[in-house]
């Protein structure tokens, strides 16, 4: 593979889409769950309805055209082919920003914020808030290559992103991330490479037992409660992918039903919704994201990022840091914890709506947070 930045277009062969429909039509289903909620996992009725829509009404070519409507590229970084979107602003003084997704997300999470961030004037904003966007797909995710050996952890990915921004000619830029993207962005902040001016995180992960000192304060009690609920009811996927990603990968590679349910259940659980994620995200949006796992057969390779990787943004960072916490996200951390590690917090806000998939769920507040965070360092 060339070390050059090469244009990339998605062109999924029709036979792969036909195979998907065949698999969906021939799925063998389990019996119904024995409860009337999501506590045993994604309900049979909901998953069948999602898969029926996927088989009969979903249009991948629409999503493919949307992605191909932005400048897409591939580049070799540290021996691995990486797919990324590079969407430049029409504003000449736009601030370059690299944004990193997590699991079970993809670059699709950002599709509603690309326009407002790159062309604020066209969306009722100020030209001085414009960004050039670089949106890479993580190694083993989407249309990036799959690592063939261990070692592609947060630090290595962060170093690859530094090389990417350098290859693109950006000598001053900012970085943003949530979920795995927050861990990777925190590593960028810790290493403070030349050119990185500031970072923004919309996920904070801290070890509660390490951070609580003495009697917990009210905001600490909230973090403790969220952490306990997550450990008791949400942690199964993490433990499985963190220890045996290959084993679950066989099912994710072979069964579109499992791949859909694996992600759909997390979109339901981690988004800020009134009881049904379909009131926040459309079936098309969720399936667009699921397709970026199914089509490249990324179920196992994406899960391997959990294997021998920690999940902790508690890293010492001296450069400017912005934090936006969305109330409906399963993770929460008090500012007092963050201040132990982030010595220069330039923006802190706790929003009363929005969840773990902030840009996907609440694009307008997300865009405001990004603009407000980085305005002072332009």
SSE diagram, text form:
Layout lengths: L5 E2 L6 H12 L18 H13 L3 H9 L3 E6 L2 E8 L7 E6 L13 H5 L12 E6 L17 H14 L5 E5 L2 H12 L4 E6 L6 H4 L6 H17 L1 H8 L1 H10 L1 H15 L12 H12 L4 H5 L17 E6 L8 H5 L5 E7 L6 H4 L1 H12 L4
Parallel strand pairs: 4-5, 4-6, 6-7, 7-8, 8-9
Antiparallel strand pairs: 1-2, 2-3, 3-5
Helix pairs in contact: 1-2, 2-11, 5-6, 10-11, 11-12
InterPro entries: AB_hydrolase_fold, Epox_hydrolase-like, Epoxide_hydro_N, Epoxide_hydrolase
EC number: 3.3.2.9
GO molecular function: cis-stilbene-oxide hydrolase activity
Summarize the structure.
With 378 residues, this protein is α/β, with parallel strands linked by helices. Helix content is 42%, strand content 14%. A 9-stranded mixed beta sheet has the order 1-2-3-5-4-6-7-8-9, with helices on both faces.
Walkthrough of the structure:
The protein is an alpha/beta fold and 378 residues long. The protein has 16 helices and 9 strands. The protein has helices at residues 14-25, 44-56, 60-68, 114-118, 154-167, 180-191, 208-211, 218-234, 236-243, 245-254, 256-270, 283-294, 299-303, 335-339, 358-361, 363-374; strands spanning 6-7, 72-77, 80-87, 95-100, 131-136, 173-177, 196-201, 321-326, 345-351. A 9-stranded mixed beta sheet has the order 1-2-3-5-4-6-7-8-9, with helices on both faces. Helix 1 runs antiparallel to helix 2, helix 2 (44-56) packs across helix 11 and helix 10 crosses helix 11.
């Amino acid at each position: 593979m060339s070390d050059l930045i090469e244009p990339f277009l998605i062109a999924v062969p029709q036979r792969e889409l036909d195979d998907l429909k065949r698999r969906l039509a021939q799925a063998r289903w389990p019996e119904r769950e024995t409860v009337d909620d999501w506590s045993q996992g994604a309900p049979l009725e909901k998953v069948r309805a999602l898969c029926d829509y996927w088989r009969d009404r979903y249009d991948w070519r629409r999503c493919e055209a949307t992605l191909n409507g932005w400048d897409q590229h591939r580049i070799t970084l540290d021996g691995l082919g990486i797919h990324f979107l590079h969407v430049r602003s029409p504003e000449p003084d736009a601030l370059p920003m690299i944004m990193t997704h997590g699991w079970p997300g993809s670059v699709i999470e950002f599709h509603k914020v690309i326009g407002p961030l790159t062309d604020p004037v066209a969306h009722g904003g100020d030209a001085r808030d414009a960004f050039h966007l670089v949106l890479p797909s993580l190694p083993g995710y989407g249309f990036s290559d799959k690592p063939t050996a261990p070692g592609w952890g947060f630090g290595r990915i962060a170093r690859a992103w530094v090389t990417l921004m350098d290859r693109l000619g950006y000598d001053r830029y900012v970085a943003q991330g949530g979920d795995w993207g927050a861990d990777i962005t925190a590593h960028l902040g810790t290493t403070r490479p030349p050119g990185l001016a500031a970072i923004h995180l919309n996920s904070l992960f801290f070890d509660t037992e390490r951070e609580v000192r003495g009697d917990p304060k009210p905001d600490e009690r909230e973090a403790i409660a969220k952490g306990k609920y997550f450990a008791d009811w949400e942690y199964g996927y993490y433990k499985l992918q963190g220890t045996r990603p290959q084993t679950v990968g066989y099912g994710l590679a072979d069964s579109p039903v499992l791949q859909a349910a694996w992600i759909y259940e997390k979109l339901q659980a981690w988004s800020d919704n009134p009881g049904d994620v379909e009131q926040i995200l459309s079936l098309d949006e969720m399936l667009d994201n699921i397709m970026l796992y199914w089509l490249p057969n990324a179920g196992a390779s994406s899960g391997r990022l959990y294997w021998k990787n920690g999940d902790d943004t508690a890293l010492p960072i001296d450069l400017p840091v912005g934090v936006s916490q969305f109330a409906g996200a399963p993770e929460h951390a008090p500012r007092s914890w963050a201040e132990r590690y982030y010595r220069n917090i330039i923006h802190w806000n706790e929003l009363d709506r929005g969840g773990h998939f902030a840009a996907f769920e609440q694009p307008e507040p997300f865009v405001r947070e990004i603009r407000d965070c980085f305005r002072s360092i332009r």
